[in-house]
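Need fresh eyes. Consider my entry:
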Amino acid sequence: MRLSSGNSSDDGPCLRGRRLALDVGARRIGMAVSDPLGLISSPGTEHIERTGDEDRDLELIGRWIRRYDPVEVVVGLPLRTDGSAGEAARRVMAFAERVRERFAVPVVLWDERFSTVIAENALIESGVRRRTRRQVRDSVAASLILQSYLDHLRRQADRSDCDENGESGS
């Protein structure tokens, strides 16, 4: 689901550039960023410990947006296992809308089901200590969400009329 900022063209899969992902949880917001071509996701080295002050959270996200200058912000959408949107998804959708409004950047909501569980399991398998896992889990989850979205874009581009520079041929 795409929330348009109203100030950029929607080139869909042909749009190249860095993307920023957010895994918005009740306690933390994890961050990941793609490479400048929008091919590979990496977990961010920072996360936000939420305090209940949404303006503070948005200001910290704004720092990431200014630093990375993304063409889109991808926000993980915590759908239920049946695909429906519960209360957590509605809160994330409202937060994503505030990000879009405040920073005039296109925002994409992307299914994040099981991303935190997958991130936790990968960190356990890698031997990461519990205390460290808590600090990086949400950014690893954001990276999984972002990589899923980038892979989707790549599949779409393979079926689209994109040239070697990522431009739409139409």
